[in-house]
Amino acid sequence: MTTDSSNSRPAAARSEPRPSPTRRALELLFGRDLLASPGAAAGADGDPGRSVKLRLALLSFLMLFVELALIRWLGANIIYLSYYSNFVLLGSFLGIGIGFLRARSRINLFPWTPVALAVLTAFVLRFPVQISHTSGTQLIFFGALKTTGLPTWLMLPVIFLAVAAVMAMIGEGVARTFVRFRPLDAYRLDIMGSVVGIAAFSALSFFNAKPLAWGIITAVALLVLSGTRIGIIQFAALASLAGLLTASSLMSHDLWSPYYRITVGAKTRAQTIPIMVNGIPHQAITAAAKRPPIFYQPYSQAPRNPLNNVLVVGAGTGNDVAGALRMGAKHIDAVEIDPMIYRLGTRLNPDRPYQSPRVSVHINDGRAFLSQTKQKYDLILFALPDSLTLVAGQSSLRLESYLFTLQAVQSARAHLVPGTGVFAMYNYYRTTWLKDRLANTLDVAFGHAPCASSVGQHQQQLSVLTVSVNPAAVNCVRTWHRPSSVLPPSTDDHPFVYLASNTIPSFYLLTLGLILLASLVLVRTASGPYRKMTGFIDLFFMGAAFMLLETKSVVQFALLFGTTWFVNALVFAGVLLAVLAAVETSRRVVIRRPQLLYGGLLLALAVAWVVPQESLLSLSVVPRFVLAVLIAFAPIFLANLVFTQRFRDVGDSAVAFAANLLGAMVGGVIEYVSLITGYRALLIVVAGLYGLAFLTGRRKLTAAKAGQPAVAALAPRSASTAPT
Taking each helix axis from N to C terminus, what angle separates 50-77 and 113-126, rounded to the nearest 10 degrees? Predict the structure, then answer.
């Protein structure tokens, strides 16, 4: 008897379609397990399996990587975003929250991520905004005043909605896999993928990678995760995304440092080389012999000439270093935060200042250098420090914020040669109140009024402020006269030197109000009734509190170790590792009295409040780092123990996580309160929010019995059975 082999196979096997050439190529490159469908059946023991775990980790990697890339790339092309702090971050949290709320929707939006990214990229490349917004008197931004893009009222809403849409699609992809695990198992994989994401993006920053590299990584990840579901439209969108970024890279000679998109202009008739950053004129490389005499005024005012030791903070492309060499300085410490701008100065500055054996270069934050060096200087010069950008997407600090505080000037004074050392600073201060505020800062720090002189008119007026501990040591032509009303110095706790008063500017209030209103509408429209989240209101408050706690950590480490990209990357990685440690603890230990965790958290917040930051600044680097980690990360670890002990037994992990993410978005809005109160007071707000979390979730604080399995949704439910 013969058997028809074609009919001996199971029906499912006979009906299985043959893999496409694209599918076979992807399986060859990345392996069949990784390309498994997100709806693949779980193993016999209920474990989703290795392929699904790998998929969740890769999705989480993609989510954080794209978020960081959008923050960097959009901020470099739309200058408004440099002054609206965490605008892109708020849109990201809103989008991810909506994506998690849609975890069980019938229509899956994740496959349309390539299309949304391609449309956003094309829009920004077509309508870039290169502007410095200086209207009004509440905030001062240096740079050009020429508008080259769409107006603020149109561009910001479009970008916010576009970012939210992109991140909602990615977030939904994460959520549909997230719900197949027990809550803490899913959260653990999510954090692991996020750690890899921030490590990868930091590595690209270190190598000054262009957006094309970010786009390739994103496109490959989307291609792998889409698997057989990728259609012609999605594939064309990925190709368009790669093409747009490739064309943008080939058509421009932009350089990408960890801070800026840098453009080097052609040499002008005056033989200067303009340097643009993020679309704004930033520096002009000029021969020392052709610089105006006012730049050399601090040297003529110093009692000792030539000077033995000079510190130049904000060395940039080397103009001020070349000036110090021209004035005969025997040794110069040149501090510049951006390695790419330093390299441009090394290559293009006609005086070759960085090649001089009399110059020591330090790629570092100026305030951090002052806290680390023990050197004494005849002249300390703050030379045109103006970052034109914020330190990160999660704080209102500019890179130079901590240079202009009272404590920073006092630190500089401590590094002057006793009796004869001179401190000087100059810039194009656009308003009288800003120059007076900085002069007042010098007055308070040194005990007497500084010398003040200016040249030029209006916005092109260059002002120089010079002072010494010994008033007789400075050859002062004109002394600053205190006006009837002058702003007090900014401080390390409230380092917003460009803010004319301790208020939230009106345009910030309007923007934040519109963000909250849009969020209410979008959440209701995209994901259904709010009542599905009412059972997780405590997680909402935890998200808001944790966002503020993370912000406080970012700004604290920026002060203690410098506002550099590397410090920020370490802080974010440290936060994720602290979260991971809390997850691993909660996976193994059930806290039978969760109320005690709230008590420990409040105690840790009290310690962070009591210990003054200046006491840590006085320590050497190693003990400062150890104490800073303990003070900053103990509350973060305990806060995540509170969260994970609660999250481990939730009935719907996607909705619970969405509530937490939307709370984080609201926390990002609350962060602007620091413009009024300073950063230290955020700890009180954090304590209050965790108090609300305790009150709203106290009925759920009963510990699970030993050995009781956590409640989880191990398989996606249909929309009809989703909670409402």
Answer: 10
Query: H or E segment at 465?
Result: strand 462-468
The C-alpha angle 591, 596, 598, rounded to 5 degrees, equals: 110
Identify the residue whose tokens are 């950053």.
277
Q: Which of 223, 384, 262 is nearest to 319 (CA)?
A: 384
Query: Mean pLDDT for each consecutive 10-residue tract of the chain (724 residues)?
Result: 41 45 48 48 58 95 96 88 81 96 93 96 88 44 54 88 97 96 95 96 93 94 84 92 90 89 91 88 91 90 86 96 95 96 96 97 94 94 78 65 93 94 88 91 96 76 91 88 94 90 87 92 88 92 96 90 88 94 93 90 96 85 91 95 93 94 95 93 96 91 45 32 32
Torsion of CA 234, 237, 242, 245, to 10 degrees: -150
Closest CA to 310 of 334, 294, 290, 292: 334
Catalogue the long-range contacts made by 528-533 (C-beta closer than 8 Å, 24 or more residues apart). Answer: 528/101, 528/724, 529/724, 531/724, 532/101, 532/652, 532/655, 532/722, 532/723, 532/724, 533/101, 533/655, 533/658, 533/659, 533/662
What domains lie within the chain, and their CATH numbers?
Answer: 21-38+45-255+502-719 (1.20.1250), 261-386+406-473 (3.40.50.150)
Quick one: which of 26, 2, 170 has its CA closest to 92? Answer: 170
Q: Which residues contact 197 (CB under 8 A, 6 or more apart)?
A: 60, 61, 62, 63, 64, 65, 68
Radius of gyration of the chain (CA): 28
* Alpha-carbon gap, residue 35 to 341, rounded angstroms: 43
- Which residues contact residue 10 at a Cβ distance below 8 angstroms, ignoring those fewer than 6 apart? none
Q: How far apart are CA 374 and CA 378, in angstroms?
A: 14
**Nearest alpha carbon to residue 402 among 311, 465, 491:** 491
Side-by-side strand order, sheet with 261-264: 255-256, 261-264, 273-277, 280-285
- 521 CB-contact burial (10 Å; exposed 0-12 / middle 13-18 / buried 19+): exposed
Do residues 197 and 205 make contact, with C-beta atoms less than 8 angstroms apart? no
Rounded Cα distance, 684 and 590, in Å: 28
> Could you tell me what percentage of the chain is helix, strand and coil, using 3-state DSSP and rounding each to the nearest 5?
60, 10, 35
Give the E-state strand segments of 309-404 in sequence order.
Answer: 309-313, 331-336, 359-363, 379-383
Q: What are phi and psi of 377, to 5 degrees?
A: -125, 145
Note whether 542 and 665 are within 8 A (CB). no
Cα angle 137, 139, 142 (rounded to 5 degrees) comes to 105
Token code pair at residue 109: 């939006």
Distance of CA 691 to the CA centre of its chain: 28
Q: Could you tell me how far CA 254 lies from the centroid of its own chain? A: 21
User: Can you tell me whether residue 31 is helix, strand or coil?
Assistant: coil
Kindly tell me the number of DSSP H helices and DSSP E strands found in the chain.
Answer: 24, 11
Structure tokens at 373: 């060096």
Task: Determine the 3-state secondary structure of 562 from DSSP.
Answer: coil
Q: Distance between CA 497 and CA 194 in Å, rounded?
A: 34
pTM: 0.86
Distance CA 617, CA 170 (A): 41
Q: Which two tokens stand for residue 357?
A: 């054996």
Which residue in 299, 298, 283 sits closest to 349, CA to CA?
283
Counting Cα atoms < 13 Å in the Cβ hemisphere of 198 gives 18
Cα–Cα distance measured from residue 722 to residue 719, given in angstroms and rounded to the nearest whole number: 5
Query: Dihedral through CA 55, CA 58, CA 59, CA 65, nearest 10?
Result: 180
User: Strand, coil or helix: what is 581?
Assistant: helix
Write down how long the chain is: 724
Q: What's the token pair of residue 480?
A: 């600053």
Tokens of 299: 């040297």
